Amino acid sequence: MKLENEHILLREPVIADAPFIPKNLDTVAFRFVPLPQPHSKKDSIEWIQKVRKENRNKRTYQFVIVDKKTKQLVGGMGLHHMSKINNKCEMGYLIYNKLRKKGIGFQAGQLVLELAFRKLKLNKVSLQIDIKNKASQALARKLGFFREGRLKQEYFRNGKYYDAFIYSIFKRDWKQ
Ligand SMILES: CC(C)(COP(=O)(O)OP(=O)(O)OC[C@H]1O[C@@H](n2cnc3c(N)ncnc32)[C@H](O)[C@@H]1OP(=O)(O)O)[C@@H](O)C(=O)NCCC(=O)NCCS
């Protein structure tokens, strides 16, 4: 499956992407996304194989994001924890360091929400965000998510526990 607009293409990761991923993971990515650290090419290959299997089984819809002009990978985004019974799922995203704050997260987010609500006909999409992660909260709000709740001591990092916010969006409130 592919999602695209004029500027970006979201496609399934392929093994040939593996060398590019570790080079683009920075301290912010390691802080807020559960990734093996340090992240080797082997870790990326394992992640790609896992994603392709989960996508094939329709348990997830996970993509890498490609800049159409430069043909470079610029990040990843997708849907996971799909619940057919409850008609909902969770979303995750990562834009590579040098390409942040250029609107790519927003554009990719719109494409992924269109998949969730129009094609998959889900009712609700949620995001779990570390309370310290201002960038992710800003992107979620811009995409139309609202802050639904707070999970206490959800993450353990450098000897401390951190709370997480749950951000959600319903199909009825989604503005395309
Ligand atoms: C969160 C993340 C995906 C945002 O992607 P992005 O491409 O930079 O986002 P956009 O450029 O589309 O910005 C969307 C909005 O968020 C705001 N924003 C982005 N980074 C911000 C920051 N560091 N602080 C405050 N606001 C920020 C933008 O200003 C924009 O709002 P505006 O148009 O009203 O000004 C990116 O910062 C990232 O990959 N972070 C590391 C991984 C991560 O935290 N993933 C999420 C885990 S829950």
Number of domains: 1
Which regions are unreliable across 5 or more consecutive residues at pLDDT < 50?
none
- The termini sit apart by 20 Å
Computed CA radius of gyration, to the nearest angstrom: 16 Å
The CATH class name reads: Alpha Beta
Instruction: Report mean pLDDT, rounded to a whole number.
Output: 96
CATH topology category name: Aminopeptidase
CATH architecture: 3-Layer(aba) Sandwich
Work out the number of β strands: 8
Task: Give the helices and strands as they follow along the chain.
Answer: EEHHHEEEHEHEE
What do we call the CATH homologous superfamily? Gcn5-related N-acetyltransferase (GNAT)
Write the layout of secondary structure elements.
Blueprint: E1 3-4, E2 8-11, H1 20-23, H2 27-32, H3 41-56, E3 61-67, E4 73-83, E5 88-95, H4 104-119, E6 124-130, H5 134-143, E7 146-157, E8 160-170
Parallel strand pairs: 5-6
Antiparallel strand pairs: 1-2, 2-3, 3-4, 4-5, 6-8, 7-8
The structure holds coenzyme A (COA).
Coenzyme A binds at residues 28-29, 32-33, 93-95, 100-106, 127, 129, 133-136, 138-139, 142.
